[in-house]
Amino acid sequence: MVKTWDQLEQLQPTVLKMLKNSIRKNRVAHAYLLEGIKGTGKKDIALLITKTLFCDALVEEYKPCEACNNCRRINSGNHPDVHKVDPDGLSIKVQQIRELQEEFTKKGVESARKVYMINHADKMSVSAANSLLKFLEEPNSQTVAFLLTEQPQQILPTILSRCQMLSFKPLSPQSMISQLVENGVNPLKAPLLAQVTNSLDEAYELNVDDWFAQAQKIVLKLYEVLAKTPLEALVTIQGDWSQHFKDKEQVNRGLDLLLLIFKDLLYIQLDKQEQIIFKAEGERLRPFALKSSGRRLSEQMSAILEAKRKLQANMNPQLMMEELVLKLQEGSSFV
Known about the structure:
Elements: H1 5-11, H2 13-24, E1 31-35, H3 42-54, H4 69-76, E2 82-85, H5 94-105, E3 114-118, H6 126-137, E4 143-149, H7 157-160, E5 164-167, H8 173-182, H9 190-196, H10 200-207, H11 210-225, H12 230-244, H13 248-269, H14 282-291, H15 294-312, H16 317-329
Parallel strand pairs: 1-4, 1-5, 2-3, 3-4
Helix pairs in contact: 1-2, 3-4, 5-6, 8-9, 9-10, 11-12, 11-13, 12-16, 13-14, 13-15, 15-16
């Protein structure tokens, strides 16, 4: 999905204000480091500025028209003077950077300008990073580089010092909800999607993902059986839960969903209906909220966070979940 300047300005206003000023003053840097967590628009904005640099019919001096031949080819990924480098396996190899340098010794196919983007720039091997450093030390006035990363601390300080750093802020849940609803997502689903991911693209994928829809049902069922006997809760963990949440990432997502249920119970107790995340399940959760105390809910949320830490420390997921269920029931009015 191609995003326009106006759409991206809503997501990263500070970054685009800086870039707009640079373009208007004809002070575009030769290298930018775009850093921020996944899903904050780094790649979209790198493409947007690339289109601005090549566009034949700029709007208001800085917005790409999205309709000219250059804009359309950049959107489709086949402009001859725009080059992208992605990790080859686990890393970006020195040969990839050398090939890029060789390409840039040639004249532009259609103009003097050239742009290159390096995705996951933190994954450059040491030799690749040193090779790029030489490239950055002798910039061509018509060449612009975009280095994209979620881990700027992994990049050589000498490379960082030669780039203008642009920091991408995580999208606020409210901003994400607005964007999702504007693009056709059910308003009852949008708050949950905005809590489980910072990425709009991932949120759209989850919105139509059968696995994620089933995950919500299983987590709600697990919460409800916690109110019954410990044995029934353990049976659910050994059955529905373990069959659906198979790898570490999936289990972690299940724990996130479970944590959001407990947050909703707290919101119900505090009469903050507008903050409820499982919007469609508010009435279903209300009786449980009224039976618990704020202190107990806080203890249960702490237990889930501790389980997430143990999962990241590679504790056996099945054992971790069984231990968690017992903690969630311990001292509760459930049993």
